[in-house]
Design brief:
The protein is α/β, with parallel strands linked by helices. The protein is about 20% helix and about 35% strand.
């Protein structure tokens, strides 16, 4: 049986390094429709229209784009200490101990990593926006992030033991993990590497997902997978490869579940031949998308 996490209330943001902040800012504001909420030394913070202070942080660094960490909102300060202890017990490590956050958004945080170098920041008491409201064609918040895993069972165990996530559904190629009523906030893709697969942004409605596809195409970023509707999560989708091979998704209508939901297994999620989504209209993911879904790896942990 699935359950909401006792330690984590939501996915808040993802932090990346990129080699060209100006190019990234243009994409994520003018084209992707986020707004810059804070600037720091060689760093930008972008908000959506929801309450989260920021949903994306970009730090300028040479070379290929990398993922710095996934930020989750903790339910309490006590949960931060519980996660720190549980991470070590599960074979991971504490990267930054519990302490005040010095970057925009503030709060108190702990940063931990699993044995394969996936880095999670847990924050509590961070700033939130009072003017949160849905806006057509603009993201509300993050819906989920998908992380590749060369050993899905081990990574799933870390999320369960440390973050108190639970399995919503398991397909042949992905494990969907839940911390609240969203069907999944993190999913693990069965691959032979441990890169960032993609970041999904929740749009206010299906129309915004579809118009977003047209807007991105007009700007030279074609739809690399979609439009379609997934099985697990029941969400509509369009996928794109943004600057520096960062894969981003517009999604809407994510399934809401509670503790009565029973996890399905791969045999429950099969499509008729030639289909890759519920509607049966989407082409398979492009070769470019598949390549980009392996390109953005976690930054090395300073040991």
């Amino acid at each position: 049986m699935t359950h909401a996490s006792s330690r984590i209330s939501a996915l808040r943001s993802v932090a990346l390094t990129v080699p060209d902040l100006a190019k990234a800012e243009y994409f994520f504001t003018t084209i992707w429709h986020l707004a810059v909420v804070a600037r720091a030394d060689k760093a930008l913070y972008f908000r959506a229209t929801g309450a989260d202070h920021h949903v994306l942080a970009l730090h300028e660094a040479p070379g290929a784009a990398c993922i710095r960490h996934v930020t989750l909102r903790a339910r309490s300060v006590a949960a931060l200490h519980e996660v720190a202890q549980a991470a070590v017990q599960a074979g991971g490590q504490v990267v930054q101990p519990v302490g005040e956050v010095t970057e925009p958004g503030g709060g108190v945080a702990v940063t931990v990593a699993d044995a394969d170098g996936r880095i999670f920041q847990l924050v509590h008491g961070d700033a939130q926006h009072a003017d949160a409201a849905p806006v057509i064609d603009r993201p509300l918040r993050l819906a989920h992030t998908v992380l590749n895993a060369h050993d899905v069972p081990a990574t799933q165990h870390f999320l369960e033991a440390v973050l108190d996530f639970s399995l919503s559904d398991r397909t042949r190629i992905m494990a969907f993990m839940r911390c609240n009523s969203d069907h999944h906030s993190i999913a693990l893709g069965d691959t032979d590497n441990d890169a960032l697969n993609h970041i999904a942004f929740l749009m206010p409605d299906l129309e915004s997902v579809m118009r977003g596809g047209g807007r991105l195409r007009d700007a030279g970023y074609g739809i690399e997978w979609g439009p379609g509707r997934h099985g697990p999560g029941d969400n509509a989708f369009n996928y794109f490869v943004g600057p520096f091979d960062v894969v981003v998704e517009y999604t809407a209508e994510v399934q809401q579940i509670d503790d009565s939901y029973l996890a399905h297994q791969p045999s429950d999620w099969t499509w008729p031949p030639g289909r890759v989504d519920q509607w049966g209209i989407s082409q398979p993911p492009s070769a470019r998308l598949k390549e980009a879904q392996r390109a953005v790896v976690f930054v090395p942990i300073n040991r």
